[in-house]
């Protein structure tokens, strides 16, 4: 026997698009990265700094070379709202700034000449958080891992033919899947 439903089909709702902000609130109307934190704030990365949108107002954060408690650099490439409440801000040429929105405390990580304890490169293109709260940092010259227990950085650079390193050091995208595997998008594929 065949059964036909007498219930009407539910109409698909069409998406609704609305512009938010203006040239005064978002410099040049250019958005390079987005993240939403647990409090619901929307963080907006631009080539001219970081913006927090609370649903009503835009608050601008930028670099002040004379203030160590300011954003490390103005061109924001990547954002990550971590589970611990801190915001990781990857910049085009000035490393990573970690902002605690509650306290205003800032930590900065940059490339160091001796490579010990610093980033692989100051151009940070991608960020991802693992289940342990560790942060993977994709740069133009390698993959770094910030360990939450030691608060230290480890480098994972390409070693040709080694299955224990990324295929390319020019990291463009990172994603951790449901089982905890790290997916790496680079100039040499996935």
Structure report:
With 190 residues, this protein is mostly beta strands. Helices cover 0% and strands 37% of the residues. The chain has strands spanning 33-36, 42-46, 49-53, 58-61, 76-81, 87-91, 96-99, 106-109, 124-129, 135-139, 142-147, 152-156, 171-176, 182-186. The strands form 4 sheets. Strands 1-2-3-4 form a 4-stranded antiparallel beta sheet, with no helix packed on it. The chain has a 4-stranded antiparallel beta sheet with strand order 5-6-7-8, with no helix packed on it. The radius of gyration is 20 Å and the shape is globular. The mean pLDDT is 86.
Descriptive keywords:
single chain, 190 residues, mainly beta, four-stranded antiparallel sheet, 14 strands, globular
In short:
By secondary structure, the chain is mainly β.
How many strands in all? 14
What's the average pLDDT? Answer: 86
Strand order of the largest sheet: 1-2-3-4
Total number of helical segments? 0
| Shape descriptor | globular
Q: What is the alpha-carbon Rg in Å?
A: 20 Å
Helix content: under 10%
Question: What is the end-to-end distance?
Answer: 50 Å
Q: Secondary-structure element order, as H and E? A: EEEEEEEEEEEEEE
Strand content: 35-45%
Largest sheet: 4 strands, antiparallel
Low-confidence stretches: none
Strand-pairing-aware structural class: mainly beta
Topology at a glance:
Layout: E1 33-36, E2 42-46, E3 49-53, E4 58-61, E5 76-81, E6 87-91, E7 96-99, E8 106-109, E9 124-129, E10 135-139, E11 142-147, E12 152-156, E13 171-176, E14 182-186
Antiparallel strand pairs: 1-2, 2-3, 3-4, 5-6, 6-7, 7-8, 9-10, 10-11, 11-12, 13-14
């Amino acid at each position: 026997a065949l059964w036909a439903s007498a219930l009407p089909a539910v109409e698909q709702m069409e998406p609704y698009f609305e512009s938010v902000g203006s040239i005064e609130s978002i410099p040049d109307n250019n958005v390079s990265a987005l993240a939403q934190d647990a409090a619901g704030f929307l963080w907006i990365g631009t080539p001219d700094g970081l913006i927090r949108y609370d649903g009503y107002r835009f608050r601008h954060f930028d670099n002040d070379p004379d203030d160590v408690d300011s954003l490390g650099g103005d061109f924001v490439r990547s954002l990550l709202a971590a589970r611990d409440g801190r915001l990781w801000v990857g910049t085009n040429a000035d490393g990573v700034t970690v902002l605690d929105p509650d306290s205003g405390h800032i930590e900065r990580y940059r490339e160091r000449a001796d490579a010990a304890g610093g980033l692989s490169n100051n151009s940070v293109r991608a960020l991802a958080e693992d289940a342990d709260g560790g942060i993977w940092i994709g740069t133009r010259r390698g993959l770094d891992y910030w360990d939450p227990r030691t608060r230290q950085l480890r480098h994972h650079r390409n070693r040709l033919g080694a299955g224990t390193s990324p295929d390319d050091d020019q990291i463009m995208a990172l994603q951790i899947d449901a089982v905890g595997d790290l997916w790496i998008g680079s100039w040499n594929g996935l």
